[in-house]
Structure formats: structure tokens, C-alpha cells
Specification:
Elements: E1 2-7, E2 11-16, E3 24-28, H1 31-47, H2 54-58, H3 61-71, H4 79-90, H5 105-116, H6 121-145
């Protein structure tokens, strides 16, 4: 159930607590925005669309790329080539600094367009393949391995 409380003169804090889901809270400048956010989260919980984004808010794409490079890449046949591609992606000014929750198709498309000014389309496609492998591995392996069925991190 959602609650909204006034915080000082200019802020409203919205909290949503549902059994079986992580508690979430956010602060807004307008009460209407807080009410809308609470309704959206409650509707998502009712329809089963709640996703725990706490880990995605903590980690940057760069951190995930480095973890993949140290934990997964060495066991591959093409480890040297993949490691070079990850290093190239890490040299970009903006993409690796994004929080995982902020990595969108438009952010990747912007990176792709910057890369296309430097290298051929085939090279960019191979680098996108590496990004795809990193995202899939992180989603499948790292998302579930350290948490239980309620989303809490295991010790």
C-alpha cells in the first residue's frame, strides 16, 4: 500500500510497501507526481510487472563490463579479441558511465553512431554482439545467483 507524506515545505515522499515485493520510496516536488508514481507501482504489483531495480541503480555499465571481462571472458576461446572489444567500449566517454538502469536502446544507438564515425559497420556489429553477451550473462547469471526468491541478497 502506498503512503505519501510531506517533507518540509517543498517535498513529498511516497512509499510503497507490498508483501512479497521490496519496499520502495521516492521524493517528489509535487504531491500529484507522488500520487501518480504510487498508482503506477501499485498497478504494476497487481499485474505482476514489478521489477527490483536496486542492483541496476548501484552498478554502472563499466563495472559490469569489467566484471564480465575478468570472470567470463578468460574462459572463452576468443578471450583476447573479446577483451580488446570490451576495452574499446570502455574508452567511450558516456556509455560505460551510465547506471545499468539508465542504459536504453537510445543510449546504445548514440554510442553506435559515434563508433560508426570511427570504424566500419561490421566492427560496430561485433562490438554490439559483445554488449549483448554481457547484458544476457548479467541478467541470467548475476541477477539470480546472489538473491533468493524474494529478491533479497543472500549472505
Amino acid at each position: 500500500m502506498g503512503t505519501i507524506t510531506k517533507r518540509g515545505e517543498l517535498q513529498w515522499q511516497a512509499k510503497v510497501r507490498r508483501k512479497g515485493y521490496p519496499a520502495q520510496s521516492r521524493t517528489f516536488s509535487y504531491k500529484e507526481d507522488a500520487e501518480k508514481w504510487v498508482r503506477e507501482l501499485e498497478r504494476a504489483a497487481d499485474t505482476g510487472g514489478v521489477v527490483d531495480r536496486r542492483e541496476a541503480e548501484k552498478n554502472t555499465l563499466g563495472a559490469i563490463l569489467r566484471r564480465y571481462q575478468t570472470e567470463v571472458t578468460p574462459s572463452k576461446k576468443s578471450a583476447d579479441i573479446e577483451s580488446v572489444k570490451i576495452d574499446v567500449i570502455m574508452k567511450d566517454a558516456t556509455l560505460p558511465k551510465l547506471k545499468m538502469s539508465a542504459v536504453t536502446s537510445s543510449a546504445v544507438a548514440s554510442w553506435r553512431d559515434r563508433r560508426l564515425k570511427q570504424v566500419s559497420g561490421a566492427t560496430v556489429n561485433r562490438e554490439i554482439d559483445v554488449l549483448s553477451a554481457v547484458f544476457n550473462h548479467a541478467r541470467r547469471e548475476w541477477d539470480d545467483r546472489n538473491s533468493d526468491e524474494t529478491g533479497r541478497v543472500r549472505p
